[in-house]
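Protein modeling request. Please complete all fields; requests missing the sequence field cannot be processed.
Requester role: graduate student
Desired output: 3D structure, token encoding
Chains: 1
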Amino acid sequence: MGITQFTTRQIAKIQQGGVTALIRKIQLLLGTLPKLPFYILAIPSVLIIRLIKPWLLVRIGTLISSRIGHFAANTELYLCERDAGINAPNRRHIDIFHMADGLICNQQMASMWKKVLRIWPAALLWPICRVNRLISGGESHEIGQNTQQDRDVHNLLSRLPPHLQFSMEEEVRGAAGLLAMGIPTGAQFVCLTVRDSAYLAVHLSGGDFSYHNYRDSDVQNYVLAAEDLGNRGYFVIRMGAKVHSPMKSNHPKIIDYATNGMRSDFMDIYLGAKCTFCISVGTGFDAIPVIFRRPIIQVNAVPLGYCYTWGNSPILLTKHHIDMDSGCELGLSEIFSRSVGFCLQGSDYESKGVYLIENTPEEIRDVAIEMTERLAGSWQAHQNDDALQRRFWAIFPTDAVDAHAGTPLHGEIRGRFGANFLRNNPEWLC
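Delivered output (430 residues):
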């Protein structure tokens, strides 16, 4: 195509694109200049690391500190694997970490990890990482996959104690925080976390996270369960650093911590660590109770193939998968045969002719009651409950592998699907 065939508008667009690219290069250069001394210092640092390798292997890793789920789960699982001798060098070594991009989603968690890990400034370590990668053989000096895994496929959380502990001063502070919320000493409380898009829109502004919206839920659908728990003596604390709307209930034992002005980084961690159990939809916060070995209920869990199956015997429910053409609900086998059990974007469900409906308030209440009764030792199993569970897990692809990483998604299955749902919907397993 000759130049004369371009319209004036096309030429202007090309010129604008060139100017934009030039501006980006200039911004990148200006952003790099202040870091130049660190890159210069990184060269001898890398050489020293390589020279001492026969006697001491130095490895550097990145903590995914911008997202609470990865900051909590990935880091705890790295420590569990280290203790279990999994993915760890069989020789003398030290591991050093830095925070990803300098973004820290929770300062209390960062403070606690610094007590059990070597965490150095990113401005110092990141140039060393970059220079190390430019020289052949640098892979052995990277911690790599240990901090990239947030799924307990080795079932280490049920075998090893938590690595984070509160100091005596923090215990006193946490107890005072509970009293300030009206929760008496020794009272049982439940954390409730319901995902919406508000947090990412504020915390990581500038990015488009709408592909995650299929995971959102309406917090009002949890009121029935929360009020039932309140009637049973539990306090229910609605969690959230940033949410779209308050939880509407006048029950004296329901505390909308996400909107009442009492939220803090410290109490987020303390509440997650000390709750009797947590009700979640599979979002970042629930990693906190998980790493502190607290029981968890995961409702509205999608994609179903990625649901919790490890930890302290989780109870599960998934959203209802509805065929767009017929309006009929897909059974468990159909969810996986139509390849919607592992969809990670809302558009994927749409392209496969499926839309999602949230669990009903009654379904959520039923699994909440099941958890309380199991923990209290008062759960009354029905005659066919075990058979229904076996049928569910026989259909569920427990040997599934992550399509991108090629790693297993599940280890030993420690979860249960909601008993009352399976009793009421046995045809769902057909």
